[in-house]
From TrEMBL:
It comes from the Bacteria. Residues 1-26 form the signal peptide. Residues 92-138, 185-230 form the Plastocyanin-like domain. One of its GO terms (molecular function) is nitrite reductase (NO-forming) activity. This is Nitrite reductase (NO-forming). Its EC number is 1.7.2.1.
């Protein structure tokens, strides 16, 4: 340890501190027997652990787990290990004014919390299948994450505990592992723990992978992981605001006073609502905010499960687009970004003037079903 500190001190005298993040040697980054490196990336995770635990604590744990459209700031340089818990459980949620259904959720909302890590970070993930418990998420929880206080602040999403015992699983697109092991299905009352390394930067989907995957995702089990590139994006020091937007579809049909999932509608790709951040009013009753002249960055994820998104901001042009959030995939000057189901992008635009800007899926049938939001721009600040 001392030798390494000396080495680092020596290095910092010869290199500017703002250069590449701290680089550890391969030996220091490999944690378990069986792990190996290819092209600087770590593969060969240990087998997942399935167990029973007497746990009724916060269902979301992790300091970089946030509620949409927030993204947690990262204060570390690189190669950090994040201990993250995201339990799965049923919740009665609202998708439009007065339209509620008993959703299957990660963390109690649809979409679930956004996890933010840096390329090269390791995630030690725990999930308890609590679909047979009444879990409440309406109050901030001691030991929870920023997710709960952010959730408590929004005025559109109303959640109530519900029970719907079902087997579930977790599939992180940001993880490179054997899916039959890590993404395996867990019955109610059991927990799973596994690790993955964020080998690739980008904006990634996570979802339940238990059959019918269409049904489990349409029932609400999805969210986003943002893996910021080690080197950052070239505009990092120019960005004034950043927000996460997840687009998705609901397939609901009225049964008496309540709404239920309609598998035929899902198979026929005929959504009842298409939404940003889980609710028709999420980005209308609480518009995004910026000022004229500011650079706004959006982390976009189209969770689907079926439809494409043609994302557009009326009155703005995307100055930078990094498709899938990888800095190698840079486009300039785009009017619309086309995202298939599970595709993503990081987009930036300059807010041209004070005013109100509509965010839409330019496939207008979907905008009319709810995939619309607003960015309110204040006057230019000098
Ligand atoms: Cu599921």
């Amino acid at each position: 340890m001392q030798a390494r500190q000396l080495l680092l001190t020596a290095a910092s005298m010869t290199l500017a501190l703002s250069l590449a993040p701290l680089t550890l040697t391969a030996d220091e980054r490999l944690k378990h027997d069986g792990e190996f490196m290819v092209d600087g990336m770590i593969f060969g995770m240990p087998e997942a652990r399935v167990f029973e635990e007497d746990y009724d604590g916060p269902p979301v744990v992790g300091e970089t787990m946030t509620a949409l459209p927030h993204l947690a700031p990262l204060t570390h340089e690189g190669n950090k290990t994040h201990e993250v818990r995201l339990d799965t459980f049923a919740q009665k949620i609202e998708v439009a004014n007065g339209k509620t259904f008993n959703a299957w959720t990660f963390g109690g909302t649809v979409p679930g919390p956004t996890l933010h890590v840096r390329e090269g970070d390791r995630v030690v993930f725990t999930m308890k299948n609590r679909s047979d418990e009444m879990v409440s998420v309406t109050e901030p929880v001691p030991g929870g994450s920023p997710f709960f206080s952010q959730l408590n602040e929004n005025n559109y999403l109303k959640t109530e505990p519900a029970v719907s015992p079902m087997p579930h699983s977790m599939d992180f697109h940001s993880g490179t592992v054997a899916a039959d092991d890590k993404w395996r299905t867990i019955p109610p009352g059991q927990s799973i723990e596994f690790e993955w390394v964020a080998n690739y930067p980008g904006v990634f989907m996570y979802h339940c992978g238990t059959p019918s995957v269409l049904m489990h995702t349409a029932m609400g089990q999805y969210g986003a992981v943002v893996v910021s590139p080690k080197e950052g994006y070239d505009t990092d020091d120019q960005v004034d605001r950043e927000y996460v937007i997840v687009q998705s579809e609901y397939y609901l049909r009225k049964h008496g006073d309540e709404y239920r999932y309609d598998h035929t509608a899902a198979m026929n790709r005929n959504p009842s609502q298409v939404v940003f951040n889980g609710h028709v009013n999420a980005l209308n009753s609480e518009p995004l905010r910026a000022n004229a002249g500011e650079r706004v960055r959006l982390y976009l994820m189209n969770a689907g499960p079926n439809d494409t998104s043609s994302f557009h901001v009326i009155g703005a042009i995307f100055d930078r687009v990094w498709y899938e959030g990888n800095r190698e995939n840079e486009w300039r000057g785009m009017q619309t970004v086309l995202l298939g189901a599970s595709n993503s992008a990081v987009v930036e635009f300059i807010v041209p003037e004070e005013g109100s800007y509509k965010l839409v899926d330019h496939e207008f049938a979907d905008a009319e079903r709810g995939a619309a939001g607003t960015l309110i721009a204040g006057p230019r600040r000098q």
